[in-house]
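# step 3/5: fold
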Amino acid sequence: MFVMLVVVGAGLGFLSGVISAPMVFDTPVFISSMGVSAAPVTVPDVLGMTRAEAQRSIEGGSLVLAGQWTEYGNFETMGMVVRQDPPAGTQVPRGAPVNIFWNVGPLFRPFYPDSIVGISAGRAEEKIADWQLYTAGRTRIPHPTVPEGEVIAVAPWFADSISVKRPVRLLVSSGWTGVPVLTGLMVAEAESILTGRRLVMEIIEERPVSDILKEGTILEQFPVSGENYRQGDTISVVTGAVGGGGWGEW
């Protein structure tokens, strides 16, 4: 009897195990410790946006703006994002990096060097910046006729356009401390310049000339330009006069 009970009990235990085993040993479900953060996200489309707009869109999508790279392009899309990596719609993990490429404009920009000669260096630099170019600084030299602070020349000198990779350097006048240049000026203009520096002009000769355009202009001066002077000094000049022996030279 005892043996029978043992056998029956063992059989019932076996059947119970067969029935309950599938319930106990069902396929396990693993739950990540990261929870929903492990779910992938979609890369947003930032083409045509400004860099600031693209950054807000990327970071708002639980991603990281990794790099901002520049490319040359047309004026129409200048300042906008023209490429992105990964492309829009790509499924990536949260926190993944996204790179954007934005258009800095054409490689060659409008450039009119003749329009900045004769104006102040500060105004010239503003115009260069308006052309989306940059300066390489100023070189200052004395100049007998160009006022202090004005642009004498520009380098390089390319008409109409220049590469954004070429910096523009300005040659700027530092003024003139010696006797001013009078040669080639009309007498009235020379007198005005000398009066402003408290110098006196004396015409010591009217020399006959064949070129009517030189009549009334200063041909020579003593002392020459650039020499030191004191206020009240006299500058002697030779002026041109049409007539006399000059007419006979035609």
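# step 4/5: annotate
The radius of gyration is 43 Å.
# step 5/5: archive (pending)
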